[in-house]
Amino acid sequence: MRKIRIAVACLLAVPLIVLSPVYAFIPAALLLLFRAKKSANRWLELCARLISNCSLFALGVTMHIDGEENLPTEAPICYMANHQSMLDILAFVGPAKLWASVFAKAELKRMPFINLWCYALGCVFIERNSPHDTVKAILKGVQKLKEGKPMLIFPEGTRSKVDTIGELKNGSLKLATRSKAIIVPITIKGLRDGFEGITNFRRVHAYLSIGKPIPTASLSKEEIATLHEWVYGEVKKRFDELPN
Q1: Which residue stretches of the chain have pLDDT < 50?
Q2: Global pTM?
Q3: Which of 1, 92, 112, 148 has the greatest CB tally within 10 Å of its CB?
């Protein structure tokens, strides 16, 4: 069942990805030649949104988004979300319309077409088996935030294998505190059933909820020390409130 559903989705998603250099990156490159950087980035964002929405539709996923009114208008912004599925990034870029840098495995540099979109997102590549490279990647992330570029962080560090929220690693919050970013807690629920947990052909209803922002610039040392509990509490509370 899972293989059939994924194969059907690939019939729509793969051509969109393979042809993206033609309809996405070539026009963006032409816009850059005319020094229209904002327009080029906006075009890539719209194309990525198309790919994400079509991929989720083909997999039978209906996303329910709430809390858009909580999105800050000032920068830097650090989105922090629980990690449920390989589809999480698609939900952010597509239905939620959130365009942010993420940490990505260094192996993705060698994946044709996918690597182009990683560069378009401004991904920070990381060798997970190298502690030295991990430190360098974190510093790059801090620098991006200081430059005003949004970042999406999954503080759990890996995808949850069950429909619960894992422990949030305190170290990942240093990205936000060192750059004095605004943390936006985000709760994802139900996306595993759209890919990793496929069992039938029914449509899957998944949720992405945007919580109230947490400014870190004015936090005391005591508040920073318990920040991971604060963020975890916001995400967990909303997770329990969302439908199963």
Answers
A1: none
A2: 0.92
A3: 92
